[in-house]
Design brief:
single chain, mainly beta, seven-stranded antiparallel sheet, six-stranded antiparallel sheet, 4% helix, globular
Amino acid sequence: MAIAYVKKEDLVFNFENCFAQTEMLAGTYQGGVRAYRCKLLSGCTVTPQIYPKTLQVLCFTDGKGAIITPERAYAINEVSFYVADPASTFTIHAATDMVYTMFVVEQTIHDIERYNAFHLAVPFFKPLSECTEYCQDCKTANTKSWSIIPTKRLCRILMGVSEGFGEKEGTVEGCVEKGHPAVAQWNVPYGDTDLILTVDNESIEQKAGDFSYVPAGLDHSLVTKPGKNLHYIWFEHYVQEVDYLVSNPR
C-alpha cells in the first residue's frame, strides 16, 4: 500500500504527570525524521527533551496555553507553530488540554554546515493568523494556503497549511499534485476536517487527529468531501542531503 497512516483512535497514550507522547509511523521514513503526537492536560506543564543534533518543530492544533523560554513567553490561542532553539530549553504551560504534533529532524554534517551558514532565527514562533498566504496552481478557488517555513530557511525542512471547503455537491476542493521527487511529506489534519487522501491511486479518509506520510515522488491529493471542510498542516523534508534544491527528474 502506498499510503502510510494512523487514525486518531488507534494512537495509544500513556500519561505520566499529566503528559503523554507517542511516536507515529515509526520506521516509515529512513531520512532522519520522526513524528510524535503529544498531549498535555489542563493546568500542567512539560519541558520537552532537547535532542542533540536535531531540529524540533511543534505544531499546536488543539487547546490554549503558552511556551516559556529563558527570554520570553509566547501565547498559544490558535493553531500555532514553534521551532525550538537547539541550544536552549523551553516549557509548555497548558491553560486547557493541549494537543500538538512534534517533528524531530536529525541534522547531518551537511545540514549543520548549512544551518551554521544561514537559518531562520530560533526560537521561532508563529500563530497561523500571522503567516503568509501563497497561491499554487493546483489549488481551487475555495482553498487557501499559508507558508510556515519556506524553502531554504531551515535546512531541508518546509512546512505550510492548507484550508478549503467543498462547496457544491459532487465537487471537491483541495490540491491534486504530481509527485515531487525531492521531498517526502507528512500530513496533520486538524479542526473541522473531513477529507480524502489519495496516493498513487489508493485512497483513505482522514479527519482531525489522524496522521499520514507520502513518500517522495508519488502523485497525491488531499481533497474535501462535498460540503465538508479541509484543514491540514503539511510538513516536507528534502530526501537528498546535498544538492537537494536541484530539481530531480520524475
